[in-house]
Amino acid sequence: MASTSTSSISLRNNAPGTRFPSSTTSKLLHSNLKFPLLMPATKATGIKSSSATRYNEAVIDEEMDKIRRLQNGSDVRGVALQGEKGRTVDLSPPAVEAIAESFGEWVINGLEKEKGRVVENVRVSLGRDPRLSGASLSVAVFSGLDRAGCLAFDMGLATTPACFMSTLLPPFAYDASIMMTASHLPYTRNGLKFFTRRGGLTSPEVEEICGKAARKYANRLAKVSTMLKTPPERVDFMSTYAKHLRNIIKERVNHPFHYDTPLKGFQIIVNAGNGSGGFFTWDVLDKLGAETFGSLHINPDGMFPNHIPNPEDKIAMALTRAAVLENSADLGIVFDTDVDRSGVVDKEGNPINGDRLIALMSAIVLREHPGTTIVTDARTSMALTRFIIDRGGQHCLYRVGYRNVIDKGVQLNKNGIETHLMMETSGHGALKENYFLDDGAYMVVKIIIEMVRMKLAGSDEGIGSLIKDLEEPLESVELRMNIISEPRHAKARGMDAIETFRSFVEEGRIEGWELDSCGDCWVADGCLVDSNDDPAAVDAHMYRAKVSDEKLGQHGWIHLRQSIHNPNIAVNMQSMAPGGCLSMAKTLRDKFLVASGMDKILDITQIDKYARTGLVK
Q1: I need a surface site. Which of 67, 390, 481, 561 has the fewest CB within 10 A?
Q2: Which residue range forms the structural domain that includes residue 442?
């Protein structure tokens, strides 16, 4: 860790003698907090007369673009530390200060519109994961909130779901919250996620905030110094959040013999990946009576030295699987850095993530809410759709992006279509019963409750038995095409490529390919009414096509989408037929990319290599 603190928490059982650092250096946060905001030096010196004016306008435009490019859908993300080849630091303290100030103003303006009067003492909390840049960027957040006139509360090391819950659970109930994290990205990155009591902000809302922040940032082209009028108050919310999760397990298990320790007799392994998820071991599982010996990487370390904290990471899942088998555990849990995603390993050592995790959660939710609709992103398999329908559910496939999937569920519920589960293949999962919040810890809580209930009912099969009849796709491939463009033009060029793909498929220029669509709702089977009276904003363009031939019928699908993280287009393919993905790649290359001229603006190296050799790398 890059900071020290007078505040610490001793870890129980799993890491004796280790300390759990708080988020920021005490000297920074609890003295007269002051730091210089240094803007990048410009090259305007020596430029004369009217050309100087034009040059300065260009410089300001470029400075504003730097902030706008930090928007990452409904989040802000950027490079916070040097060390990435080919990337320079763009999420600097001045940038973060401007964004935090604009968010604070946005919160105040929203509350004033809602209440119809001037509001005072608007309270905003900040949590962060253990990244090394967290301390200095936290200071910038507090400075920005102070400029906006907000009162700031420092939660220290926290999780993304906990930040949202800090706006709801008493006695905290803040007006808004910010989580500082870059999820599973490298230690050099960092970012911001924003919440009010309504939930996470949407992409258009974050775009508005970044637009205002860009003007602030560009107007501060001189060295400035900021002193906080009101230093942030240090609070311990994570203990309250952990107690909230414990109470849910105790109440819903309602163990007939030991109510307060319903996990007694269960061995559960946690792999926190050195992120923020270690608390779940000592502050939830241990206190409920579980044995957690053998848990992995539960101490926070902003360098993430063991593996990427990501339930999709093969190393993370393999290490957790080995620990489950070695310790004869009942369950293994893998969290991502900020615990808004999770995956599990069953007692047999089978990894459960992606489609398998969605199927497991669907099986649990459909027992509780028969006939409910389940929303997923459009990269899930045809077999998952059959799994859900066979259990009486409805499956709505929607746009890739966890915020898109969750917002779709919210919209369907408003339209009178009962929708209790929204999940993305990445491991983001939200439930209607939990404020439509993507909370990896809460999802694990649901799985643990089901595991205990099965045991109490006399079953020793474990949670893996709930998905034993889920078919796996025969082939599944993901490839990337980089956009050949300057960063500022990459989004527009990517959009053109995706829309050209749509036109080619709609016009029947690719035989056997048909757009899988219903208005703004992407579905495979059991399409629901989607009125689109209030269509969601498009943060990244994407389309999915069903792929058929005379011999096999519909045997797969191909999905193209613009990345909101990087200047590229992701190509996902699945097929139930041998050689199906290879055939799709050849068709994509020959019938679309070359035929349309898109191979001139897209680097199709990966597509071409796979089409020729069947090799992904």
Answers
A1: 390
A2: 239-467
